[in-house]
Specification:
The complex is a heterodimer of chains A (311) and B (277). The two termini of chain A are 21 Å apart. Chain A has a single domain, classed as MetI-like (MetI-like fold). Chain A has 14 helices and no strands. With 311 residues, chain A is mainly alpha-helical. The longest helix of chain A is centred in the first third of the chain and has 32 residues. In chain A, α4 packs across α9. Chain B has two domains: 49 residues, no CATH class; 219 residues, MetI-like (MetI-like fold), CATH 1.10.3720.10. In chain B, α1 packs across α12 and α7 packs parallel to α12. The longest helix of chain B has 35 residues. The C terminus of chain B is likely disordered. Classes of the chains: A mainly alpha (311), B mainly alpha (277). Chains A and B meet through α1, α2, α4, α5 and α6 of A and α1, α4, α5, α6 and α7 of B.
């Protein structure tokens, strides 16, 4: 936008810095500062501090000074089977939630993009989970899953499908049960993003393909999907990260039980830090989680991106 | 384009299935909130309470300091919303109007921060706030919320700024208005609806937030609603279902109402932010 640069020129000259278009001038810095300071103090700073902590023996409520212990935390972590169990559960959870979430949201977005009656209702309902506090979502599904007074077991009994389960405390059912809740809770963002992507697909192309006799599936494959792919890729990557870092839902639903079957890495690190006070060790866990997830994500994106280079 | 009747029926069936899946947990929450203890203990619960009652709500207020928690939540959410918007608007303006290293860096930060590892952030934040004596205090929590909601606020606001015609600002500059003056008296009024929507979004985010509140607020009289709600669930995971449902239902109403107000703008804002960056 040359016109904007043009209009700025008087201000630029007044503040004494030359050459427009070479990054922000003093005026811009002044505008950016209020956001920059809190970001540096409360997010970039703590992040670096957190990485440093991972190399110390920091503990809560200890009187001796904290010491550098090199990579000892990481060596311990390497042999901590509980952590790796938790990490594996975290991956199963993240993928188990993200994939159905994407497929269901895609289906819903395609439906909402059609000219159906009741679409307004579906659109409104589709984003309700987004507006709810995660804690309430957890509480709500506890009521649904409740062994005696829950609607799920009652429905199963009505349909003659057995006497029902104690879903959240069964060793085999707990993880699938919380995954369903995760899918439910994260659908809105995904649906909204995909719907936005769909509305950008060229309608004329769609109609041309239909005239040429392409069936619904072919039209989706050749017209819709190519246009939707960047959005789909971005939202899936974000969902993977969000889900891997998820905490509140499972904290409320099972607190990581039964027998650690749903102890996501975030819950594990939280307990390590704030129940047992092992700050250094928990920080090391955080570093490992971030590093491994970044690698997995890079592999996923590299495998899918092929050529495109948008951020 | 015509769609065959069969396909239409299939589409409606699918839409109905989605509606049921999305709505039934919430309806069940409402139903549970109005049931007397006798029905809650029944092995054959019904969708509609046979004997609807408000006792659960009364009991919920007796058991936990809900009003006080709501006040804490309100303070935290209002503080976060107002501060986030005040801080983000000038920066979003620069992001939208300047093309250059800074805008790229800011957009990059917005994207990366979405992947922020909370685990790695919360321990140092806890220690920093403890040293500043801001642990267990709502202002400390507000600071965290502001930074936490900044990325999305920047993203949305930058989109709204791009929607304001640059010609208006040029005209003001020709008339000799300074940068700050232009921002305050030309751009800000046009941005107002977007700013309100962004503030409300930050409000909901803070109102709903749980993890930071759980870690940073220790005493019950400082805790926010989501944290207090978990107190209804006992140590062994046993919960008094009626009051739990009643309290959860009440805690959701403000976010639902606010969300209903800004629903269109949020989706629009996401789009606008995504168009050019």
């Amino acid at each position: 936008m040359t016109s904007v640069t043009e209009s700025r020129r008087p201000a630029v000259r007044a503040s004494g810095t030359g050459r427009p278009g070479r990054g922000p001038d003093h005026g811009a810095w002044f505008l950016v500062l209020p956001a920059l300071i809190p970001i540096l103090v409360l997010s970039v700073g703590p992040l670096l501090y957190g990485i440093l902590l991972a190399f110390t023996d920091a503990q809560s409520g200890r009187t001796e000074p904290t010491r550098w212990i090199g990579t000892l935390n990481f060596q311990d972590l390497l042999h901590d089977t509980l952590f790796w169990d938790s990490f594996r559960i975290g991956l199963v959870w993240a993928i188990g939630v993200t994939v159905p979430q994407f497929l269901l949201a895609l289906g819903l977005a395609l439906l909402l993009n059609q000219n159906l009656r009741l679409r307004w209702l579906a659109r409104a309902l589709a984003i309700v989970p987004w507006a709810m506090p995660e804690v309430v979502v957890g509480i709500m599904w506890r009521l649904v899953y409740n062994a005696d007074a829950g609607i799920l077991n009652e429905t199963l009994r009505d349909l003659g499908l057995g006497n029902g389960h104690d879903w959240l405390s069964g060793l085999a059912t707990a993880l699938p049960a919380v995954i369903v809740v995760g899918v439910w809770a994260g659908m809105p963002q995904t649906t909204v993003a995909l719907l936005a992507g769909l509305q950008n697909t060229p309608r004329e192309l769609h109609e041309a393909a239909a005239v040429d006799g392409a069936g619904a599936w072919r039209r989706f494959r050749t017209v819709t999907w190519p246009a939707l792919r960047p959005v789909a890729l971005a939202i899936t990557a974000l969902n993977l990260i969000w889900n891997f870092n998820s905490f509140a839902l499972v904290y409320v639903l099972t607190s990581g039980g039964p027998g650690g079957r749903t102890r996501l890495p975030m819950l594990f690190a939280y307990e390590e830090a704030f129940r047992y006070g092992q700050f250094g060790y928990a920080a090391a866990m955080g570093c490992v989680m971030v590093a491994l997830v970044s690698v997995l994500l890079a592999v996923f994106l590299a495998g899918r991106l092929k050529g495109g280079d948008e951020a | 384009m015509r769609t065959s009747t069969g396909a239409r029926v299939g589409q409606y069936a699918a839409l109905l299935a989605y509606l049921v899946f999305l709505a039934f947990p919430f309806l069940w929450l409402v139903s549970t909130a109005f049931k007397p203890p006798r029905e809650l203990g029944s092995l054959h619960p019904t969708w509609i309470p046979e004997d609807p009652t408000l006792d659960n709500f009364r009991q919920a207020f007796d058991e936990q300091p809900l009003l006080h928690a709501a006040l804490n939540s309100l303070l935290a959410a209002l503080g976060a919303a107002v501060l986030a918007v005040l801080i983000a608007t000038p920066t979003a303006y620069v992001m939208a109007r300047h093309r250059g290293r800074f805008a790229k860096a800011a957009t990059g930060w917005v994207v990366v921060s979405q992947a922020f590892p909370f685990v790695l952030l919360i321990i140092p934040l806890f220690l920093v706030l403890k040293n500043l004596r801001l642990i267990n205090s709502v202002p400390g929590l507000v600071m965290v919320y502001v930074v936490w909601s900044l990325p999305f606020a920047l993203w949305m606001l930058a989109g709204y700024v791009r929607a304001v015609p640059a010609e208006l600002e040029e005209a003001a500059a020709v008339d000799g208005a300074g940068r700050l003056r232009i921002l305050v008296s030309v751009t800000a009024p046009l941005l107002a609806p977007g700013i309100v929507a962004t503030a409300l979004f930050a409000f909901i985010t803070a109102w709903n937030e749980f993890f930071f509140a759980l870690v940073l607020l220790k005493s019950p009289e400082k805790q926010t609603l989501p944290v207090i709600l978990t107190h209804f669930i006992g140590a062994e995971g046993v919960a008094d279902l009626g009051p739990l449902a009643a309290a959860a239902f009440l805690a959701t109403l403000p976010s639902l109402l606010v969300f209903a107000l800004i629903q269109r703008r949020i989706t629009g804002g996401m789009l606008a932010g995504a168009v050019k960056s």
